[in-house]
Structure formats: structure tokens, C-alpha cells
Amino acid sequence: MDTIILGIESSCDDTSAAVIKNGVLLSNVVSSQAVHEAYGGVVPELASRAHQQNIVPVVHEALKRAGVSKEELSAVAFTRGPGLMGSLLVGVSFAKGFARSLNIPMIDVNHLQAHVLAHFIKESEEDANQPKFPFLCLLVSGGNSQIILVKAYNDMEVLGQTIDDAAGEAIDKCSKVMGLGYPGGPIIDKLARQGNPKAFTFSKPHIPDYNYSFSGLKTSFLYSLRDWLKEDPDFIEHHKTDLAASLEATIVDILMDKLRKVAKARNINEVAVAGGVSANNGLRNSFHEHAKKYGWNIYIPKFSFTTDNAAMIAITGYYKYLDQDFCTIDKPAYSRVTI
Questions:
Q1: By the 8 A CB rule, do 123 and 28 touch?
Q2: Which of 17, 64, 232, 249 is geometrically suited to a Cys-Cys bond with 59, CB 3.0 to 4.6 A?
């Protein structure tokens, strides 16, 4: 009998639904919210309202594209956390009502675990490019920067994580300081391709073990800009490509330095990257360089699987379904948690 999972993602500002059949992706629909651009960041109240408007048509479209009726579904998987509470509540409430109406199991998914398992999304039966256990995964997004040892689908250990700000958040804030707009990640990435990564030097933190910190980098970037703008009020406009390239290079260097140390200490050459920042070209290029230099087998997700999407929720739900790992209807959403 076929196992068909509907995945629902609503942790931040993207409403998404996906359908996976026997581990193979049939559809992945994402509705993004442009309303936040005017505010330079996600406004939680506006995000939750947009989710309420989007969730029914997005789920309907996902089922339609998959050629699956709701009666054929085996279970509903949904992001239970972490994320914005208002946004999560929309997806969680819909998933509970939808599953209850069909009398099928509910599967709660940890959003961070799902980013890691995005590497196991298959777009066809022949798709076999998945990491081998155990592997290391660098999870980098707007809210998280972690190095995770993945021993199995349901066995992950955080070896290092940010003690303050995440890499993606640092990029967004520095972009905002430069007046480049939101979200900053794609803007910085595009400008960095045209600039000199060695043009400027910014401070790198000295954090023990395998943990990260990006608050000092943000401060260094802000103070450096302040001093340069005193000498030249148009400094940013004159040097924005070099500033973007230098900022990106600094963040990538910080991320890869710790990842290298972990890979060497654990003697692991299966290395993956996941999360929104894994769409960054500088980080992707660095992974390819490390693969050549250190003999790593690297795994980089498709761009469509880097940002928040329901395909990663559905594939996580699929593996949990095989383990009969269901959740009860009384389980609430949660805003903060690690793997």
C-alpha cells in the first residue's frame, strides 16, 4: 500500500504544502509574503494573517499538482516548531483539523531537523544522491547556525551552535545598515559576486569549542562603516560590492573554520549544508573547494530546498510515519527549541 504524506510548513513568512508518495516528491507549493519588505523584516502579526489567507489554497494546489485526493493521504505532517508562534499556530491548527476530519495520523516535525533531512528528498525513484550516515551537517539560516552530527534520521547531535546571532541574521542586519533592503541574503550574494572579498577586514570571534558568534562581526561592520562614512558620505555607494564580498567572505570563513575542525576531529568526510544561507554562492563555492582539498563528499541542496518549504516537512514526516511516530491532538506549537 502506498504511503502518501501531506507536509505543511508555516514557521515564518512562507506558507507551503507538499505531497510525498513512498519517499518521492510529487508537489511542493510555496506562497511567499512580500508585505514584509517595506518593514525591513518579518512582522509576526502580518505573517500570521497572511498564513490564514494562504493555507487553504496552498494545500489545495499541492494536492492538485500531485494528482492526489485528500482521501488517499496516509498522514499529515506539520511544522510544530521552532518559529514565530502566530505563524505556527495557523499551520498547526489547520493540520489538526484536516487530519481529524480525515481520521488519519498527525506527525509533528521539528523545523531544524527537517532542514537536515531535506537532503533525503527524492524527485524521482532513481534519485540516489543522499548522504551516508554518519554525516556532518552545517545548518545555517536566519535564525540558526549549527554543526550537527547526523547518526540516523531520528538521531542527531548538535556539536556546535551560535551563542548569540545566526549567520543569516548577521547578513540581513549588515544589509539593512548599508540601506540595501530586505531580505539581505540574496542582495549581498548578488553584490558579492562583483566585489573583492579581500578589500576589507572585519573582526572574527574567538569562541571556544565548535560554537559560533556573529554579534561581534555585526558591531565591527557597523563601526567600520561609521568611520568610513565620516571621511566619505558616499562610501557605501562607492564600495558596496567590495563591502558585500568582504562581509560574505568573513562569514563563510568563520563557518567553514569550525566545520573543518569538527570533520578532522571526528574523522568524517560526509559533509552537508542546509538552511536558507546554504543558497549563498560563496558558501557553496567554499564547500566545493573543501571537497577538492580535504576529500569531502559534499551534499548541497537544490535552491528550492534551502529556504523554508513543505517538502522537507513531508520527507521528515515520511520517515516518522515508517516508525509509526505520531503525535496526539493536544500537542501545542513551540517557538524555541534545538534538535
A1: no
A2: 17
